[in-house]
Design brief:
Distance between the termini: 34 Å
Structural class: alpha+beta
Strand content: 5-15%
Strand order of the largest sheet: 1-2-3-4
Number of strands: 4
Number of helices: 2
Radius of gyration: 23 Å
Number of domains: 2
Order of helices and strands: EEEEHH
């Protein structure tokens, strides 16, 4: 799958892309504007320049990674509390102990946190193009 349709450089028509809107996750269209710049538009009319789209995508990814960290840490807390409950009340059907699952989940959350700590924005470096 290509993010940008191959014909985007050859036509001024609006074309469907292979990417989604960072705000609503609807399909994005792209059109070439004056001097070759690109404009992205979704079904509900969110519009983006290239820089705005990259920033929006990065922010969306970061938010989803934090959601994943939170979900994993909630799983760790639940598994721990289920172990405590099962020990206190002798509830074998709860399963456990969940030590291995807890350790694996903590490891995954730690890896995601490390990725988030290393996160840096994409820097656009545009070639020097003579203006006509």
């Amino acid at each position: 799958m290509d993010a940008l349709p191959a014909a985007v450089s050859e036509t001024a028509e609006t074309l469907i892309t292979g990417i989604t809107c960072p705000d609503c996750e609807g399909a994005l269209e792209v059109r070439r504007e004056r001097k070759g710049s690109l404009r992205f538009l979704c079904r509900v009319k969110h519009t983006f320049s290239v820089e705005e789209l990259l920033t929006g995508k990065e922010e969306m990814i970061e938010a989803k990674l934090w959601e994943s960290v939170r979900a994993i840490e909630e799983l760790v807390a639940l598994l721990h509390d289920l172990d405590v409950y099962a020990q206190r009340w002798g509830r074998a059907e709860i399963g456990g102990p969940h030590d291995e699952r807890i350790a694996r989940a903590r490891h995954h959350a730690g890896r995601l946190r490390a990725i988030l700590d290393e996160n840096r924005p994409v820097e656009l470096t545009l070639p020097d193009v003579p203006r006509t």
